[in-house]
Specification:
single chain, mainly alpha, 0% strand, 2 domains
Length: 474
């Protein structure tokens, strides 16, 4: 069951109707049942993993609260960490490490055979294991009180709007909302519906329209010329942003209609003029999670320069591996880690602003444009490895682009230009106003026309088959 399906619409209407008519305790219980039904729609057998993470981390939190000393608290924390990473490691990385070991032995001339495990990856496992593990770490660090209500905690782990593709919420932000009464207002309903509409346009009209050509190009790069491959890479950049940011918009909109606020996971990353700011805007919940629970514990910015760069590189390598069990994701992380390290070296201790002022001179415009272009080159080269099915596939795409062979036609610009124009139409007003629902403040005749056009193009471009979100595989 995915957000852009009729099944989900029916599911949400039923859940919302019951939710709006009951009190807090029953609302939370309803959300648990609905979330387990939503997750079990893919494969009911994986509900046991969700339940295991919930029970273990709830119990660990309660026991930590009663532990007589730090040694016992640390032992309990390790139970949580090893349980969650054990689940994640087995289901997501077992085949990867087995195949990598067999490949290494074979390259050394040793005969090796991999056992046939046929392990299926549970949807969203990377998201909810990180989220529930963050809770026990924060309780251990005494940054939040332990949760005593098991139903509220179960909602926190399984909350269906953000269960399978984030954002990876912090317990300090989300749990108090499940523990407090909430009201459903017309403002929340209308603003939530707007976020859902924007998210559906990003997903269905931008991401799904681009997906077909991207799949064909990466499926057989040898048959295409330079421009066709470059066009496919540019379209993939639009696809993954539209797909993932679209999911977050829909998740936030649905949740807002239920009276629960989720964090903003994207802050227009393609407007970034350096790689550091890009990562402060792209997948904010993951980048902040990696910073707080991996980069800082490794030492962060403390120590000699090489130590800091090592921490950055390790963090991004593991961030790449978090996305998928393949060496191409590790390379994607390594590219970003190296770029972040180089940029940190050039910054010399300065912190680039999240929202820089617009340049006022010709020289400033040229410098900003050059910085933006360089940032996007790094991001898009890394996207090739992110999308490629293997190193060979990535090499074929990059080599094909730089072979400078094949023709070019103005007609081939139509799709990238139109999709980019639609993306800019959605993003520029949000960026300038720092508000994701800025359209609600437009004059009502303008709003009416814009909403009607968005709904129309959504109906026109909606595929007969529902296209899953890319991040479901992570």
């Amino acid at each position: 069951m995915i957000f852009n399906s009729w099944e989900f619409l029916l599911f949400f209407v039923v859940v919302f109707a019951v939710y709006a008519s009951v009190k807090l305790r029953w609302q939370n219980l309803l959300l648990v049942v609905a979330s387990y039904f939503f997750y079990g729609w893919w494969d009911w057998r994986f509900l046991s993993l969700l339940l295991l993470s919930t029970v273990v981390d709830y119990a660990v939190g309660r026991l930590m609260d009663q532990a007589p000393d730090e040694r016992r608290r640390k032992a309990l924390l390790l139970v949580s960490v090893f349980t969650n990473l054990g689940i994640l490691g087995f289901f997501k990385y077992c085949n990867f490490f087995v195949d990598s070991a067999v490949g290494a032995l074979t390259s050394m001339g040793l005969e090796a055979h991999a056992p046939t495990l046929q392990i299926v990856l549970p949807v969203g496992i990377s998201f909810y294991t990180f989220q529930t593990m963050a809770y026990t770490i924060d309780v251990y660090r005494r940054r939040m009180p332990v949760v005593k209500d098991p139903v509220a905690f179960a909602v926190y782990v399984s909350y269906f709007p953000q269960l399978v593709a984030g954002p990876i919420e912090r317990a300090q932000h989300l749990l108090p909302q499940f523990e407090a009464p909430r009201t459903i207002t017309m403002e929340k309903l209308s603003s939530g519906a707007l976020l859902v509409l924007i998210g559906l346009v990003r997903k269905v009209v931008i991401a799904d329209v681009a997906a077909g050509e991207v799949d064909a190009a990466f499926g057989d790069p040898g048959s295409l010329g330079s421009w066709a491959l470059l066009r496919a890479v540019l379209l993939f950049g639009l696809q993954i942003y539209g797909d993932f940011a679209g999911y977050t918009d829909i998740a936030r909109g649905i949740s807002r209609m239920l009276g629960i606020e989720l964090m903003r996971n994207f802050e227009h990353p393609y407007f970034s003029t350096n790689i550091t700011v890009f990562w402060r805007r792209w997948h904010v919940s993951l980048s902040s999670w990696l910073r707080d629970y991996l980069y800082i514990p490794l030492g962060g910015n403390k120590g000699p320069a090489w130590f800091v760069y090592r921490n950055l590189l390790l963090t991004m390598l593991l961030g790449g591996l978090w996305h998928g069990a393949a060496w191409t994701f590790v390379v994607w992380g390594a590219i970003h880690g190296a770029a972040l390290s180089i940029h940190k070296l050039l910054l010399r201790g300065k912190r680039p602003p999240m929202w820089p002022e617009m340049p006022r001179t010709a020289g400033g415009v040229v410098k900003t444009a050059a910085s933006w272009l360089l940032t996007m080159v790094v991001v898009y080269v890394a996207w090739v490895f992110f999308r490629a099915t293997s190193f060979g596939n990535a090499y074929d795409v990059l080599a094909g682009i730089f072979s400078f062979q094949g023709g070019f036609s103005v007609r081939s610009l139509v799709m990238p230009v139109l999709l980019t124009a639609l993306l800019l139409f959605l993003d520029v007003p949000q960026y300038l106003s720092r508000e994701h629902i800025v359209m609600r403040r437009w004059p009502w005749p303008v709003r009416g026309v814009v909403f009607a056009v968005l709904i129309l193009i959504l109906a026109i471009f909606r595929s007969e088959s529902d296209v899953p979100f890319i991040y479901f595989q992570f």
